Amino acid sequence: MELNSVPFPWVCADENLNITDSNDRFSEEFFNDRHEIKLLGLKDLCPDFDPAKRKQICRIGGHIYLVSVSKDNGCMNVFFDRIIQDSAGVAIGLIFTDNLTECLDNVEDKRRGVVKVILENKINDYFQSGGGIVRNFENDKYLVILTSALLDKCRYNKFSILDSVKQIDCGEGASITISMGLGINGKTLKESLDFAKTAIELALSRGGDQAVIKNNEAYEYFGGKTSSVKGNSRVRARAKAYALSDLISECSNILVMGHKNADFDSLGACVGICKIARTFGKAYNIVLGNVSSAVSPLFDRLAADKNYKDCFVKPDAAEKLVRKNTLLVIVDCHVADYSENAGLIDSVKKYVVFDHHRKIPGAISGYVLSYLEPRASSASELICEMFKYMSRNFRLTSLEAEAMLAGIMLDTKQFTVKTSVQTFEAASFLKKQGADTINVKLMFKESVKTYFDRIDAIRNCKIINDNMAVTVCGDDCENPLLTAATTADELLKISGIEASFVLARAGDYINISMRSLGKINTSRIAEKLGGGGHFETSACQIKTTDTGKAEAMLNEKIAEYLKEE
Predict the structure, then answer these.
(1) How high is the pLDDT of residue 2?
(2) In the listed set 443, 469, 489, which residue is the last one of a domain according to the structure?
(3) Three-state DSSP class for residue 12
(4) At CB < 8 A and 24+ separation, what contacts does 480-484 make?
């Protein structure tokens, strides 16, 4: 094979990775004497080389190469493309398009190729103009190499490429968005690449349309100025349903738990998993701690039902139910410390995570299956989506359907926020399964005291920045968490208010409920305070009982957010 004209090093290797042929550029790059080449194998030259990978990053000597592999009639052709001289001060990034396929569906066939070229040119121009390297390694995925100076420039302009790609005309109001993950300051090049992989996973699980930088244990976030990118998740739901069916078939019993201070969505998702377990003939238990008055209407009905009255177990007693093949399913939560019993995760060999919140650092790892989908309105919707793809057909009881519908209605504020086609399809499915909307509505009733607690909090609100409302619930609140959440919703009804923040003391911490109409990203503010959530609905907990101190911290982080914008 004559490849001397190829502008970068090439070798041909046999099945044992012995070099059998090469071009002049290869000998010039790595050897002084061409006769030395055939005495070595690819592993001698590049110990990290993996023949199974079509493209990979390798370090040879003091240089970094993008190594491409193609196979032809038993011969392995390997090409080396040097992409940087030295790894010192280098950031490695991965770029994935979030919704290219969906956007191209709106484009005429003859323009689809043009749109792809425009997208690639924008990405190339953004990084190459600053001396960076961009390589397209798989359809709509890119590898980028940046110097520290270029990374600082990207930080300064807040990764303007995120907004630039949205300007590509895809018709019908569709906008292409991308997600970026960058890793820096790894001890080795491979570690920086691993950082980038973790960062891109975090960016995607947080809804896309953002850049995440991982610097050892620290994270930086850019973008995320729009709500979660809506995509078709049916393929994912089907895959997750099949995988869950296999795991349940193999287990001896199932433990299900949500987050502390369970709400309708957490409890409704637990009920959905229990229904699946019962259909497969498996024993199941729901790990549940204190039940607030807000959830008691549903809990009381479940506790009286023959299928659930004996299934509830306190968090401190749950570990006694762990067996050799117990499967733990965690719903509406993906951080161990927020779950009902963090120690239970270490006690089981297999656990699964289903959640709809944007992923934050410190997320549970080591799971055998995970379905984190910030596009979904609720955990109940996620579970409901999987029902139709389970390996066995089953029918929900009216109570189970109402429990899950209550979860969806809670997190969508009665179907007014964070809804999608899948949300209404899930609600329709639950209605067909026997959910009575009147019964669900009755679950949301509150006491006179709770009602007036909310009125008092609204009356005492403060307006900041002309478009944000901040208030504090009284210490004598009957149900502080419920009052904070409902007050935050009510404050958005005030003319001119774009975001609301409500503080309430609950035990030994201050809970802050945050809401937005879409222009202000509450999740970014919540994350600054150790919390998280969605673009329009978030929360955090501050370890103090001093509401004045917590309010001062909140105001500081709001000011930081506004400065970043």
Answers:
(1) 58
(2) 443
(3) strand
(4) 480/504, 480/505, 480/506, 480/511, 481/261, 481/292, 481/294, 481/506, 481/511, 481/513, 482/292, 482/293, 482/294, 482/446, 482/450, 483/450, 483/453, 483/454, 483/457, 484/457, 484/511, 484/512, 484/513
Residue 539 near residue 506, CB atoms below 8 Å:
no
Phi and psi at 387, nearest 5°, equal: -50, -45
Can you name the residues that pair with 267 across neighbouring β-strands?
A: none
**CATH code, domain with 338:** 3.90.1640.10
Range of the domain at 509: 449-564
Could you tell me if residue 179 is inside a domain? yes
| Structural domain ending residue among the three candidates 38, 57, 84 | 84
Asked whether the predicted pLDDT for residue 448 surpasses 80, the reply is yes
553, pLDDT greater than 70: yes
Taking residues 426-431, report their average pLDDT.
94
Q: Is the pTM of this model over 0.70?
A: no
Long-range contacts of 492-495 (CB under 8 A, 24+ apart): 492/516, 492/517, 494/469
Tens of pLDDT, residues 72-82: 777 888 888 87
Predicted local distance difference test score (pLDDT) of residue 360: 79
Per DSSP, 188 falls in state: S
DSSP state for residue 533 in the 8-state scheme: E
Q: Is 229 a domain residue?
A: no
Min mean pLDDT across 169-178, 331-340, 357-366, 381-390 is at 169-178
CA 231 to CA 389: how far, in whole Å? 18
3 found inside a domain: no
CATH of the domain at 459: 3.10.310.30
If we measure between CA atoms, which residue out of 426, 433, 500, 509 comes closest to residue 462?
Answer: 500
Clarify whether residues 281 and 420 are in a common domain: yes
Per the domain annotation, does 5 fall within a domain?
A: no
Give the highest mean pLDDT range of 233-237, 290-294, 544-548. Answer: 544-548
Among 244-258, 477-491, 523-537, the minimum mean pLDDT is found in: 523-537
Backbone angles phi, psi at 437, to 5 degrees: -65, -25
Token look-up 């592999």 returns 69
Choose between 66 and 61: higher pLDDT: 66
| Beta strand ranges found along 98-251 (DSSP E) | 133-138, 141-147, 178-184, 210-215, 218-223
> CB pairs under 8 A, 24+ apart, for 415-423?
417/536, 417/537, 418/227, 418/377, 418/534, 418/536, 418/537, 419/377, 420/230, 420/375, 420/376, 420/377, 422/233, 422/375, 422/376, 422/381, 422/385, 423/376, 423/377, 423/381
From residue 254, alpha-carbon distances to 188, 249, 261, 545 in Å are 41, 11, 21, 37
Output the six-digit token pair for 387: 């029902």
Count of beta carbons in the 10 Å neighbourhood of residue 19: 20
Please determine, for residue 391, whether its predicted confidence score (pLDDT) is greater than 70.
Answer: no
Rounded mean pLDDT, 454-466: 94
Q: How far apart are CA 243 and CA 241, in angstroms?
A: 5
Which residues lie below 8 Å from residue 379, measured CB to CB, with a gap of 6+?
A: 258, 265, 266, 268, 269, 331, 332, 354, 355, 356, 407
Residues 411 and 456 placed together within one structural domain of the fold? no
Question: Worst-scoring range by mean pLDDT, 3-17, 108-122, 136-150, 342-356?
Answer: 3-17
pLDDT of 32 reads 58
